[in-house]
From TrEMBL:
Keywords: Amino-acid biosynthesis, Hydrolase, Magnesium, Metal-binding, Serine biosynthesis. Belongs to the HAD-like hydrolase superfamily. SerB family. One of its GO terms (molecular function) is L-phosphoserine phosphatase activity. The active site is at D20 (nucleophile), D22 (proton donor). Its EC number is 3.1.3.3. Catalyzes the last irreversible step in the biosynthesis of L-serine from carbohydrates, the dephosphorylation of O-phospho-L-serine to L-serine. L-serine can then be used in protein synthesis, to produce other amino acids, in nucleotide metabolism or in glutathione synthesis, or can be racemized to D-serine, a neuromodulator. May also act on O-phospho-D-serine. This is Phosphoserine phosphatase. InterPro entries: HAD-like_SerB, HAD-like_sf, HAD_sf, PSP. Transmembrane segments: none annotated. It comes from Lophotis ruficrista.
């Protein structure tokens, strides 16, 4: 098990950094915002808390929450235009600095492709570097489920994405940064996990993560030390 010093070294020399999105890159949980927008906020927020605590499987929680929300295509688009996701302070500067260093940045999220792509655009991250869940709609725009074949639809899916990235791009050092249990589970195959508590503190992650930060400035400073 790597020490904190070794983890910092891995981060400074990483080929790729993968960020969770909800409550990490952005301040809110996308699915909770969508639920509020569709009028079922309280019920869905409770399900999210249970899912993030790691007590139910991710796919079961996602299926149950989306079954309650049943968002239409129009509602999803209106949410993005009326209530665009709020970037977490410091993330824009951190991603920009990583890009300057030639580090590949990926967004690996249990959230929804359309919302995450909107976030990627703001951070100059190519949409090819986005791994997220895809909502499905009927021709009339009504909710038709979600693509269950996406790795991010399952518990352990973020680890599968990282394994795929290592195989495809031959990355030697990959870092995963996030606030939740599904992010922590992605290490290994990630070479280092950094817990993030700047928007919400998950007790399990704070207690178990060897490297835990509450502001992205801490990582920016780490890069400047090299």
């Amino acid at each position: 098990m790597a020490s904190l010093l070794e983890m910092k070294e891995i981060f400074r020399n990483a080929d790729a950094v993968c960020f969770d999105v909800d409550s990490t890159v952005i301040r809110e949980e996308g699915i909770d915002e969508l639920a509020k927008f569709c009028g079922v906020g309280d019920a869905v927020a409770e399900m999210t808390r249970r899912a993030m605590g790691g007590t139910v499987t991710f796919k079961a929680a996602l299926t149950a929450r989306l079954g309650l929300i049943r968002p239409s295509y129009e509602q999803v688009q209106k949410l993005i235009s009326d209530n665009p996701p709020q970037l977490t302070p410091g993330i824009r500067e951190l991603v920009s600095r990583l890009h300057q260093r030639g580090v590949q940045v990926f967004l690996v999220s249990g959230g929804f492709q359309s919302i995450v792509e909107h976030v990627a655009l703001q951070l100059n991250i190519p949409t090819a570097n986005v791994f997220a869940n895809r909502l499905k709609f009927y021709f009339n725009g009504e909710y038709a489920g979600f693509d269950e074949t996406q790795p991010t639809a399952e518990s352990g899916g973020k680890g599968k994405v990282i394994t795929h990235l290592k195989e495809q791009f031959h990355f030697k050092k990959v870092v995963m940064i996030g606030d939740g249990a599904t992010d922590m589970e992605a290490c290994p195959p990630a070479d280092c996990f950094i817990g993030f508590g700047g928007n919400v503190v998950r007790k399990q992650v704070k207690e178990k993560a060897k490297w835990y930060i509450t502001h992205f400035d801490e990582l920016l400073k780490e890069l400047e030390e090299r």
